[in-house]
């Protein structure tokens, strides 16, 4: 069947640990568009109107209190980072599996977790910002490697809002002319696009992104890159491949993680104390309840005013609960600690740069306290 081939090429599961791709080919547009308008008419959807996103979800799902604000803010941050204005109105549907139309069920069974097209995205997750990036950036004709790379560069990974450092030495070129996302290596694509955004900012990237139409051969990609960036792709790749040892000298722009959208916690004395009440009804909790299981997170930010060593301590009201804490800077340079905190590592000092940092707390039905404490410098002499 003609559409089946389009479907098959239209998405794939990403590498292990990454969200699946949500790419659609032009041939899929008709199918997806029909699906989405059909889904939008389903009467059992609960709808919440945000400022930027019309958020809806299946009646069997419970959306948490912070979802709509998070999605609205994510659209605005994506616009700022890319220097574009999103089309409107944007719509996001969090679907229970039983509400996936028949035409998509086969793909969902094989790992499809969401799609975005035009003004509308759906996902099996309550707040999949990756899909919103596709909607804001538009450009369905962009090379799949760069289309998915952009969404990964901005939204990070499921278990970590950043890509963890600058990067890898693997050559991205063999993957760049992937004709569909089934061939895209998400990790490499996300890292290379992030590298481009950090060094050159959004303007040349968006010019390049909207140049040309499929098929995207390496010859066309090289030519378009040179037109947009005024330098050769191969030179850029050479620098990317040694970026692990690069200093901040060539970084001129920031890629701000969506976790940085959380409220700012004020410092008291020499410490910041975050009390996260990990409940779906809590104001900033982003996530949802499906099949009586709560999933999601809460974001906070702290403004580190004096660079230096800090302790981070994690405590839970329920000793059975093992929270996952993502921590990192909301800026690229200078370098600052980024990673996950193990509660057992509370006596390990972390070197933090001055500036805004995010704390993303994952834990359920418990309260979690995170304390960040500046280590007083020792008097000299
Ligand atoms: Zn995608």
Walk me through what this model shows.
It contains 11 helices and 17 strands. The chain is of the alpha+beta class and 381 residues long. It folds into 2 domains: 249 residues, Neutral Protease, domain 2 (Orthogonal Bundle); 117 residues, Jelly Rolls. Strands 3, 7, 10, 11, 13, 14 and 16 form a 7-stranded mixed sheet that branches. A 5-stranded mixed sheet has the order 1-2-4-6-5, with helices on both faces. Strands 8-9-17-12-15 form a 5-stranded antiparallel sheet, with no helix packed on it. It is globular and about 55 Å long. Zinc ion (ZN) binds next to helix 5 and helix 6.
CATH architecture of the largest domain: Orthogonal Bundle
Helix content percent band: 25-40%
Provide the domain count: 2
- By CATH reckoning, the class of the largest domain would read Mainly Alpha
What is the H/E string? HHEEEHEHEEHHHHHHHEEEEEEEEEEE
Rg from Cα: 21 Å
Mean pLDDT equals 84
CATH topology heading of the largest domain: Neutral Protease, domain 2
Determine the structural class based on helices, strands and strand pairing. alpha+beta
List the ligand species. Answer: zinc ion
Number of strand segments? 17
C-alpha geometry: globular
Low-confidence regions: 1-35
Biased composition (Basic and acidic residues): 1-15
Region (Disordered): 1-22
